[in-house]
Amino acid sequence: MPQMAPISWLSLFILFSITFIVFNVMNYFCYLPKSPEQENEKKTFNLKSLTWKW
Fold first, then answer.
1. Any domain includes 10
2. CA neighbor of 34 nearest in space, from 45, 42, 24
3. Which domain holds residue 17?
4. Is 15 a member of any domain?
5. What span, in angstroms and rounded, lies between the C-alpha atoms of 10 and 7?
6. Dist CA 54 CA 48 (whole Å)
7. First vs last Cα of the chain: how many Å apart?
8. Distance between CA 28 and CA 22 in Å, rounded?
9. 3-46: per-residue pLDDT in tens?
10. What is the C-alpha R_g of the chain?
């Protein structure tokens, strides 16, 4: 029935919108930033490894 097509489009739009929002929320909250202590250790390690030995 052609009269039901707008309801189908609306339900698909809502379904994909919810899926998109849930996907983005999961990606946002699953990201774990590194603590500054780990970055400092990494920087000192890199600085030590970059010293030249003539």
1. yes
2. 42
3. 2-49
4. yes
5. 5
6. 15
7. 83
8. 10
9. 667 778 889 999 999 999 999 999 998 877 777 776 555 555 55
10. 25
Give me the number of domains the chain comprises.
1
Both structure tokens of 42: 């990494």
Q: Is the pTM of this model over 0.90?
A: no
Is residue 9 situated within a structural domain?
yes
Q: Measured between alpha carbons, how far is 17 from 24 in angstroms, rounded to an integer?
A: 11
In a domain, 54, yes or no: no
Mind giving me the DSSP string for the chain?
Answer: -GGGHHHHHHHHHHHHHHHHHHHHHHHHHH--PPPHHHHHHHHHHHHHHT----
34: tokens are 């590194």
